[in-house]
Amino acid sequence: MSRDDSCSSTIAILSFLTGTVIGAGIALLVTPKTGEETREMLVDYGYGIKSKVSELPDNLKERAEKATEHGRDMIERGKDLIHRGTDLVGQGKGYLEEKKETLSAAIEAGKKAMKEEKERLSVELETKEE
Known about the structure:
Number of domains: 1
Order of helices and strands: HH
Number of strands: 0
Helix content: over 70%
Distance between the termini: 92 Å
Strand content: under 5%
Radius of gyration: 41 Å
Low-confidence stretches: none
Number of helices: 2
Shape: rod-shaped
Mean pLDDT: 82
């Protein structure tokens, strides 16, 4: 559950409760009931609001626990990915070092072969000139 979902749910609940209170106020203003009936109606609204508000902390607590658990799971997945990435980087460095050594050896072999060929050609030219 994302933070936006949690905020959206909270806003919806608060909007509902605000609408209930406003509706009750308007009903009091326009109803032709006696004082006793009005008091009874207010008590009923009060109990209704009380039960809805008492459920609110439980819902919020559940959502907070779920969000915390989800966050912990994401942190663990992130740690695993970091470890995998670190291992892959280590493997890549080893591979590059191996290839670097192979390439250096090939370059040295090429230099040696070139030097030997140069010496051979030099001796061959000297023999032809004589």
